[in-house]
Structure formats: structure tokens, C-alpha cells
Amino acid sequence: MPTENELLSNVDALLEQVAQDDLPPPAERRRLREAAGLSQAQIAKALDTRREAVGNWEAGRTEPRPPQRAAYARLLEKLAERFPAPEPEAPGEPAVPETFTAAPAPETPAPSAPAAAKPPTRPASTTATRPPSTSRRPGAKKAAAKKTTAAAVDPRFENGPLAVIDADQDGQVSAYCVGGLVLDVPAKSIPALVDWTLTEARLGQARLHRNGRDADPILVLTAAALERYGLPAALSEEERRHGRIADSHKVVKQIKRAGLQLTQRGFGPWARVYREPEGSKRRCVQLCILPWNALDAREWDRKDDPQLPTMHPADLARYLGLYAARVMTPRGTTATTGLELMVALRPPTRAEKDEATGEFKRAFNDDALTALYPVVECEVPDEHPILKDKFARHHLRTPAEMLMEEPYDWCRPLTDEECMNQFLVTVDINMSFAAAANSLTVGLNGPTHLKNPKFDASLPGSWLVDLSHVDLSRVQINGRTVDGDRLPSPFTPKGDRPEGPAWYATPTVAYAVELGFDVAPIEAYVRTQTGRYLDAWYKRLRDAYVETMADMGVTTDLQGQEFLDAMARSKQVDPTMALLATAIKATAKGGIGKLRQRSRGQVPYYEPYPALNRETWRPDIRAAVLASQRIGLHRKLMKTAAAADLYPVAIGTDAIVYPSPGPSPLDVLPHTPEGKPVPGTFRLGVSPGMVKHQGTQTVLWAEEQFEEHGAVFNIANLIKTDQSAGEGE
Questions:
Q1: Cut 0.90: pTM above it
Q2: Which end of the chain is more exposed for a tag (fewer CB within 10 A), N or C?
């Protein structure tokens, strides 16, 4: 039994520990160390402990114990005297890096027991401030609250869909995951890195549809990681041309010696490295090599001022992690990801039990694209093999030979009355191609050829019909007529009136009927199995875009001047969110374009190219979406003209230019006496299909442009306040 003196000594030790327990929060511990320019290794050496222990103290995962605790507390106390915390930006609010003030991190619960983890040891870049590493990921409380009502996070992927792999000056490799989590990477080579990812990293993303498949984990390699693993910092001209490094490279040889395999595209900016599946389980890792332009600035970045090359790995993990959570794990370009999202949400096959044998077999889903079908001559691009020997060399196909469903590229001279206005105001439709896909019925099977058919708006396809008789001046909108000469034709991308029979997609012909004109198709290729294939795709992208814009302070309840003010501030609220919004818009636009991917010079004219082997190579669906976009825009032009005698002077894809007495869209877009937008006209708002302000110029500026070029030309996309707006969203 202990003596009284022993008990008193124990109490004194306990009191001494309590007195020393006043340690600053984990984030402040790290701030003080970095402010002093000290590394975790230096502190660990001084305290006679491991570097990982210091990292865990700064992350809040563990607390120091005696005897290190007292020494650590003294160190932090002295550092705090030399490097006091900055003043908060507002009374009662903690000082938070500006980059992360407005947007929550992905709502992923914290891992239960991550393997060796450490916070970053290098300073943040000048372009973005890294969030402090904490014991739980940002947003973990919110995620934990949701966990009671939603299914638990798949433990296979508890560390998120991807990681950014970086190396410090000492060669220590770290994996920056979503939510601020950082893992130590023991792998000394690319094959070892792949195996570590497959066995220990717990990276990946659960399937988006029960009949789909889980997403492969992605590792984003920085320049430092390339150097650490013996890969070139940049591709040579020949390697860029081939899109891969040579098979003789030592890293490729390492991969083969380790029993790993590469896909046919080899080791390039987006490389897939895999082992043979274990039963139905895939064992594949995708490498996204940042210095090799895997994330093209035209899609993933600000093309005029790229941010990704200097972005801190933690910021990059946040950006791509949010994209994965809201859209899907990236698969390459935003266009490729947009197409893959269609397949992920509408998988072509499912497992079906055979009643006779009791075994499961593959079955096709009725609402998906499941097979390659014969193509239609009028629907394919000029280089398609089916057109070989069909036309003379350098022949330009006419509308009667080719389905020309494209967005608007139209302009006209201003009238004398319009020149009395001081300004030209441009409004831009939010995610116009995605909005056009909403509720659109498309064909799912192959074409059926019809001769002299009766038009049926329920059948998607291509129709050869003469619409030259459609006169917009004869159309009545709410009892009023419009000036057809000041509006583009709805039937041609250039806005010219058709001169005879031409091929049109179903939405275009249906619009002629809607306007009150008779149509008499000469020929048609229609699809009899139909569905709203793109609905789930649209909703996923819509929700991603609206949520991201809300993180930037632009919500769906904002209207009028409040909305315009919020949009003007949005890009400064959180630069990472601004990049995310751009990537989401590019995903929507590029995904539709991929439905009719061209050869891009991969093979000679009229030779088959790889895209033609996809079930999702469906130019008829692309044509239907583009027709729906152009027709939807024209419908609003007509209603705006009828309601306010207001006519556009130029249209570039989804950017519409109106003469205006004032510089704001509120000065030109028509409103009811109650101050609400006139039904059916353009409406300001953040949702897809609504419009935002793209920019304003003066009428004098436009006249100077016309005089300089010697003719009237399309100025729609030259009128920009925000240079990233109005690029065909």
C-alpha cells in the first residue's frame, strides 16, 4: 500500500501536468512552427520523439505525454511570444485563410484509424492557402449528422476518391487526400505505389448506379513526385505526339517486371496501371500526371492565368475531391468524364438470375445505350468511313446531304432606332447544353428508314423536310406578331432562312409545327425505342453546379440586382470554387460533344477511328440536344420580341446581345408591372437555363469594330466582363 508521501507526490505530479495542459489548438501549433520556419523533424529531434508524433499533435489525432509535453508547451509559448496570431478579419471571428472562407469541404466522414499520417511540412503556395490539418476533416460534423439518415461511407474508400502524391526535399512521399487528410507513402517505385494504393490507401469511389461499377482510385502526381519516381518532368515533342513515354523507359519496364499491366494507350498523362481482376473485383489505379498537362488549363484551370501548376497539393486534393463528390471521379478530360458520367448513371448491363440454372448472367438495361447500330449517312461527320467514295474530293455537303444541327452563330446590323441606345448588353444562358438535355426524349436503338412519312414528334431522329415556307412575321405570340427580319431563323445555325429541303432533328421540325406551319417530310431515319437517357446526367450536373455556385454566394433564391451583385463577387469569394464551376460547365458541354467525337487526325480520312467503337458514339443524340438548345433559345427570343418589341443583334452559341438604354440586364429584359420577368422570356438566375450578365459595351464600340473589320460580324463573345463566361456552357 502506498505511503502518504507517495500519494502526495502523485498528486503534485498530476497538478503539474494540469498546469502544463494549456496547449494551443492543433492548427495554432502548426502555424507557430511554420511561422518560425521549423520542420517537424527538427522539433521531433529536440523533443526526442518521432516526426510522425509531432505531425499527429499538429493534426489533433494525439496529444503529447510527459516528459515531452512540458517541453513542447514551453516551445509553443515562446514561439507565440515571437509570432503572435494575426488579428481576425471581423470581431468575434477567427482568422481564416481567404481561399477557404466560403465553401465547405467535401462531406466525407473522418477515417476511423488512418495509417501513418502526417500534416504537410512545406509552406503553402502563393496562389492558394492550405487549410490546417486537424483531427477530423473539414465538414466532418456535418457529415456525421447526415450519417444517421444516410448509408455509412463505404469503408473500402474511407480516405476519398483520390490523392495528390507529392514529395518533400528529403524524398518523403505524402498522399494528400480530401478533407485535409495526409498519409505517409512508403512506396519507393511506381509499381510499389500502385500496390500500396490497391492494398492500403483505401481510395476509390462507390458506384453511382447499382448496376454500375466502382470508380478506380486516382493518384495525381506532382512534379516533385515525378522526380522521386524517376519520371521525366515534361514530355518530349515526340512523346507528346504519341501521348505516352516509350515502352523502353525504365518505369514502364519496372511496371512489367512487377506483373502489372498498362492499357493500350500506355504510360501517358492519364495512365491506367492494373493487375488481373480477383473474381469480379477490379484492381486498377489511374495516374493523373499534372506536369504532363493531364489537367488541361482550357477545361480544369484558368487558361489565361493557370493556377494548378503552383497550387498546393492539399488545395488540389480539395478541388478534385469536390469534383469527384459532386460529379464523379475524373476519367481524363472534362469531355471524357462527361461521357463516362452518362454511362455511370445509365449502365448498359446488369446481372440477372437465370431461373432455369439459378446462375447469374448478363442482361441489358432498357434505358441505356447497349449496342453499336448502323449509322446514318446524313448524321455522320465528313471523315466517317461510310462516306468514302460518296462525294467528289473537297465537296462541301449541303443541308440536304448533312444534318447541320449546331448552336447559333448569327448577327445583323443595328437599325437606326437601335443605334439611339447607348449600350449593348449581353446575357449568357447558364449551362445551356445541359439544360437542353433535360426531359429530352432521344433514341436508344438503331435507325428505321421511312419514305414520305407523316411527322411524329414522339420519334427521335433525322427528317428531310422543306421549311423554307416558315415566315416568323406570320406567327402570333399572345395575339401579337413580331418583326421576322430582325430575328434569326430557328432552322439554321447562321440564322438564314432555309432555301429548300434539309435534314433536321426532331425538335427542330416539332418547333415548325408549334409555330403553326405544315410540314411534309420527304424521308426520315427514326428510332423506335426511346427514353430520357440524359435526365439523370442533367440532374447530377445541375445539382453540382448549383451547389458550387451556392458555395460562392450565388443561391437560387437571388433575383434581380441581388443576383447580379452576388455574381460579380462570386469569383473573389473562393478561387477553388470558381475553378470547380468552370470544370462542371466544361463537363456538360464536352460530354455532349463526345457523342459525335471526330477523328482529330488519328487516322486518314475515311478510315475507322477508336471512338466509332463506342456504344455512346451517337451523333443523332448530339444533334437532338443542340437542336433543343437552339430552339429553346429561339422560343424565348420570340416571346421577348412579342412582349417588349426587343430584338437581339447578335447571338454566339448561348450569348445574346441586346441594345439597351442602360448598362445592366435589368435595363433591357422585360418585366411585368409587378416587377417580375415576363413569362417565357429570359430570366436572371443561377439555375441551368436561366441567364446571367456576360458583359456590356457601347453601341459606339460596336460600330468601331464593324468599321475596323469592314463588315458586320458576330460580337457576342467579344462582350465580356468575365473572360471565362459565354463560351458555350
A1: no
A2: N
